[in-house]
Amino acid sequence: MARSKPALNLQGLTSSQEIILSMSKLQYLAHTSLTREPFSKLTVGAAILSFPNPGFRNKPRILLLKRNPSETYYASVFEMPGGKVDDTDSSILTAIVREVKEETGLDIMRVFGQLPDFTYLTSKVASGTDGKEKTISKTCLQLSFAVTVAWEEFRVNAKKHSMGVWADREMVTVLEMTEEMRALVEGALERAGAIWAGIREFR
Q: Where does the record place the Nudix hydrolase domain (predicted)?
């Protein structure tokens, strides 16, 4: 029997976070054109969190996916689910929901808040019109949000990733990932633990 898709809960987001999530790629580019360094590609990431389960698990976990060894960029490293915001995505929220569904088969249940964004570089060698090889580099901006899903049984999309794992803080320390991604993941887990302890909320 197929699971029903949960209603998406945005309660608790700040007004500025709601505005960002409602923007299309073009709207976001226009919104930030005077305040940010130029970037070539807008991407999104989802910190899919699993909170402690009393009597079973006392630490928050995050879902991480391992990139295929054949990937042109950042092969064989772990990352949060995510990808580029397409021109056809009606909003940044639409892109996050789509990427999570495509890469894990999961439906987002709640968006808690925005995590720090970061930029990264991608480079590839391609042939120019003159037949000579040249390196094409792009600066990418990633917007990341903390989310939860209705269930934890995920399905990895083999086109991009070789495996996935629910990782706690200790496991994260031994998984291979970029420095920017590790800082983002550790920060998400720290804040998730604080929420569970009733210390603060995502803001």
A: 39-189
Look at residues 144, 81, 79, 148 and name the one whose alpha carbon lies nearest to residue 108: 148
Contact indicator for 76, 65 with CB cutoff of 8 Å: no
DSSP secondary-structure letter at 9?
A: B
**What distance lies between CA 152 and its chain's CA centroid?**
16
| Burial classification of residue 28, based on how many CB atoms lie within 10 Å of its CB (0-12 exposed, 13-18 middle, 19 or more buried) | buried
- Rounded distance, CA 109 to CA 59, Å? 20
Residues with Cβ within 8 Å of residue 46, at least 6 apart in sequence? 80, 81, 82, 96, 99, 100, 108, 144, 145, 147
Q: 168: exposed, middle or buried (C-beta count within 10 Å: 0-12, 13-18, 19+)?
A: middle
Query: Per the confidence metrics, is the pTM higher than 0.85?
Result: yes
The per-residue pLDDT for range 1-60, each reduced to its tens digit, is 556 666 799 988 999 999 999 999 999 999 998 888 888 899 999 999 998 776 667 789
- CA-to-CA distance for 73 and 76, rounded, in angstroms? 9
